Each structure stands twice: as C-alpha cells, then as structure tokens.
Amino acid sequence: MNLSVVTLGNEVLREKAKEVDTFDQALEDTVRQMFVLMREKKGVGLAAPQVGISRRFFVTEAVDDKPRVFINPEIIETSQETVKGEEGCLSLPGVWANVMRPYSIKVQAQDLTGKIFHLNAEGWLARIILHENDHLNGLLFVDRLPQNVKNKVINKYEKMSQR
User: Fold this and answer.
1) The pTM of the whole model exceeds 0.85
2) What is the per-residue pLDDT across 7-61, written as a single tens digit (0 to 9) for each?
3) What are the structural domain ranges in the chain?
4) Per the CATH hierarchy, to which homologous superfamily does domain 11-161 belong?
5) DSSP letters along 8-43, please?
6) Are 8 and 92 in contact (CB under 8 A)?
7) Which of 86, 87, 132, 158 is an active site residue?
8) Which residues have C-beta within 8 Å of that of residue 163, sequence separation ≥ 6?
9) Residue 161: φ, ψ to 5°
C-alpha cells in the first residue's frame, strides 16, 4: 500500500473516524509508512484520516520529542491556560494561522500492541496531539478559527492549489 496525503475537499477528512480494534502487522505497516510520509512532507504529526483511512490513530514526531503512536486516543484533561500558536496542516499545504489551544493536556491512548498508556504533554507537543486528535473527529485547524479568518485561509489555500 502506497500512502499519500489527502487534502481539503476529501470527505474522509470530515468523518468521525472509527476505533481501531485489530492490532496486527497491517496496522504496524501503516504506521511505519505514515512516519515515512510525515517526514517526507516535513510534518510533525499525521492522522490516519489524512491518508484516507477513517480510523482513530495518529503519529507524531516533535523536534524535541521521540516518535509516538496514539491509537484510540482520548483527551482526559486540558488546562485552563490557553495559548495561541501558529498551525499548518499537511492536508492544507502552504497555509498557516494562529490557533488558540490549551497549554497542557493529559491523553490516554493505546500503543501498537493495544496496551493503554497515559501521557502528560504541554506546549508544542500538546498542540500537535490536539491538532491530530481533531482529525479523528472530522475537524481541521481552520475550524478553530473565527469565520472571517477561516474563510481567508481557505481562499488562500484554494488559490494556491489551483496553480
């Protein structure tokens, strides 16, 4: 299977992804390919819906963190403290906008063997996890923007993608 990133307009990006219930070699192979694709595209996170798979998992690799896999993640806690930060998306290449997110989170997820783990994350890593988790719920970072800003970002993306 050769994975590629799907972009705005693909219906899978707007679906609520289904839980992963089979932890097998196919899942491992897909995750491995997602890491390769994410690195090729110079991303820091990639969710299964972004490669056309409507399942609840994503990978991350922040500059200051190790590669991670989150399967069937749940955001357990978010901080009251929020912070605005620039975000982009491999499914909307070439556009960025400042998005308000909680500064820190606690996430529960499963690893490639199905074992449950918990992670406390803050700052950049928390932002990446929240961004990728949104993909599992059919949300894009532009959906977190005020409508007028969202429209500008989408219009810019559409103009760029017509070139």
Assistant:
1) yes
2) 999 999 999 999 999 999 999 999 999 999 999 999 999 999 999 999 999 999 9
3) 11-161
4) Peptide deformylase (3.90.45.10)
5) TT-GGGGSPPBPP---SHHHHHHHHHHHHHHHHTT-
6) yes
7) 132
8) none
9) -75, -15
